[in-house]
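Task: sequence design from structure.
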């Protein structure tokens, strides 16, 4: 046992690895927070998938009665909200939490306690949203929650008067957690990079995480303001969106889509980063056009705030505004196309290994290109006017978010599972899951293009039998069964491999090029025994080519005192804001104002304690 300069005993890392449920509730380790995000988002994904499955059963046949129209509206709303806010985006934030500090050579994020608080606020928001099912009725105005339907009353009496309140306050909680996470990643990537890791040496996943955090920082405040105005309209009877009181219903749409379209890139940019890490590893060659990929990511983020009104081509803004936003919507395809061609160029001439990971990458490329092409069609205002309310738009968004974001996440899951767990996934089960997922996905969503062209409107619970829509709807529902089977095999593969998978070494793919593959699998509590010295763009490849294959330690290393490492301590303090604000939400929903005020005061006290409570940390020695 060694001692720190302060005379505090430093114990071996393995003796401080926490165990039990309390350790997960109090952890501030970025790796454990990442795992919490991943597991929680997978559970919410199952919820959202179940909601979609029930809707497809309802639409399998004309004039079907699996669910009522009122329940269908709730399923439709909660499916969209769950997939976007509680599944796809948190899955990517989970990988950002786990992988980004490793790729930049850091031992943790800049603000570990803030990171933990962000997760618990996200979880609280998800619980609030889904508890609406048990408390009288879920929100039923669509995931976009347009005014004036979101005000209730005659236009939307709903199954319960509180459904939209759960939407407002649940998303506020989850969004606050996401905003805290974005701030944390910005501070971490800017300040905690290992010596030698200049911005143009950062891995593409780090770059996309950085740009995604910037998008979060600027996109979520308009949503927060919008939800705040609606909260005042519903709880205190103001008139921001109520036309009878001088309000404007389009104000909601403008503020919502100022957030909503950057949100699409918040969900897709980390996916681009994952693909940019995987393709070089399994092609055996460096990423083609690294600099152009970085600048394309920056351009996409900038232009993401210039296209929101293409969601509003049908509201009567006029030909000039429609033309401007049509042009910017088509122009944003250019930097996206740069990425597609660079990935293909990286694979061209490479020694491609078609593992399950790489199969999902190919599925991503094909599906995302199809989604992008349909997006260009919808970017033309006259075409959008005809297709906006049809299933063509449903096909487009699913090819972008499932064929794009989800396929990249599945590729990243197979890629980083050995690093996170120390176990290899079964390739045989992985290939079965891939082929079922890709077949089921296309059988489900490709026919929606034709349904849209045939005129089937979206957001409807049924359709008459004489419109020629029966066969395609039946095919889509059968596709859902195949897609579900593929995802269930994936879950079985994850569980079985976690328990009995083959042990994974530090670099199980043998061509790992970034810093996470230079350390053991699973990753020790302290990440790096010595903070590494980065001597090239692909840090580990550089050492393999020009060194002895080991990462050289940075010298001097101020965090390495006599062989001991200082790490933040676990604490229950990040739980306080989440618990108190959750209680405040329920008090506000049911108009118990004294309890709501008390909850806000307790939340402020918890935040103050969290900010100013000293963290002595603990010292460990590498195993």
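Answer:
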């Amino acid at each position: 046992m060694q001692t720190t300069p302060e005379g505090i005993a430093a114990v071996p890392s393995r003796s401080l690895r926490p165990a039990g449920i309390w350790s997960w509730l109090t952890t501030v380790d970025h790796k454990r927070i990442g795992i919490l995000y991943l597991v929680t988002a997978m559970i919410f994904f199952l919820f959202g998938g179940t909601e979609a499955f029930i809707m497809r059963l309802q639409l399998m046949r004309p004039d079907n009665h699996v669910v009522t129209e009122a329940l269908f509206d709730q399923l439709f709303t909660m499916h969209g909200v769950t997939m976007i806010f509680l599944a796809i985006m948190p899955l990517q934030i989970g990988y950002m939490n786990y992988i980004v500090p490793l790729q930049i050579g850091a031992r943790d994020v800049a603000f570990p306690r803030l990171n933990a608080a962000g997760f618990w606020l996200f979880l609280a928001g998800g619980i609030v949203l889904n508890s609406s099912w048990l408390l009288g009725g879920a929100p039923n105005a669509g995931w976009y929650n347009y005014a004036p339907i979101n005000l209730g009353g005659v236009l939307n009496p709903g199954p319960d008067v509180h459904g939209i309140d759960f939407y407002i306050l649940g998303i506020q909680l989850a969004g606050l957690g996401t905003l805290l996470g974005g701030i944390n990643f910005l501070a971490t990537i800017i300040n905690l990079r290992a010596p030698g890791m200049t911005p143009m040496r950062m891995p593409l996943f780090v770059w996309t995480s950085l740009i995604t955090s910037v998008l979060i920082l600027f996109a979520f405040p308009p949503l927060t303001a919008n939800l705040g105005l609606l909260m005042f309209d519903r709880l205190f009877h103001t008139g921001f969106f109520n036309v009878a009181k001088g309000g404007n219903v389009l104000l909601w749409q403008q503020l919502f889509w100022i957030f909503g379209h950057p949100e699409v890139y918040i969900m897709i940019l980390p996916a681009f980063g994952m693909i940019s890490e995987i393709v070089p590893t399994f092609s055996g060659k460096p990423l083609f056009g690294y600099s152009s990929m970085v600048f394309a990511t920056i351009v996409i983020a900038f232009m993401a705030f210039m296209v929101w009104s293409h969601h509003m081509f049908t509201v009567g803004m006029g030909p000039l505004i429609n033309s401007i936003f049509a042009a910017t919507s088509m122009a944003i395809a250019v930097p996206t196309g740069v990425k597609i061609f660079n990935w293909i160029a990286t694979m061209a001439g490479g020694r491609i290994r078609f593992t399950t990971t790489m199969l999902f990458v190919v599925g991503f490329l094909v599906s995302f290109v199809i989604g992008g092409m349909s997006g260009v069609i919808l970017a033309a205002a006259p075409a959008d006017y005809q297709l906006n309310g049809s299933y063509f738009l449903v096909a487009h968004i699913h090819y972008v978010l499932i064929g794009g974001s989800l396929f990249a996440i599945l590729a990243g899951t197979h890629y980083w599972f050995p690093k996170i767990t120390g176990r290899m996934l079964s390739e045989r089960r992985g290939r079965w899951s891939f082929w079922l997922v890709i077949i089921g996905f296309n059988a489900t969503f490709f026919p929606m293009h034709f349904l849209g062209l045939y005129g089937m409107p979206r957001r409807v619970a049924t359709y008459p039998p004489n419109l020629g829509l029966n066969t395609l709807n039946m095919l889509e529902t059968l596709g859902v069964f195949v897609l579900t089977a593929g995802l269930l095999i994936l879950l079985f593969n994850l569980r079985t491999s976690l328990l009995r998978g083959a042990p994974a070494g530090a670099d199980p793919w043998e061509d790992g090029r970034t810093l996470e593959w230079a350390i053991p699998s699973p990753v020790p509590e302290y990440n790096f025994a010595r903070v590494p010295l980065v001597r090239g763009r692909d840090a580990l490849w550089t050492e393999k080519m020009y060194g002895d294959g080991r990462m050289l330690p940075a010298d001097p290393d101020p965090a390495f005192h006599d062989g001991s490492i200082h790490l933040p301590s676990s604490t229950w303090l990040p739980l306080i804001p989440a618990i108190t604000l959750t209680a405040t939400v329920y008090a506000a929903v049911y108009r118990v104002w004294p309890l709501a005020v008390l909850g806000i005061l307790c939340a402020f006290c918890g935040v103050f304690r969290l900010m100013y409570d000293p963290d002595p940390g603990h010292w460990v020695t590498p195993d």
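The chain has one domain: 2-621.
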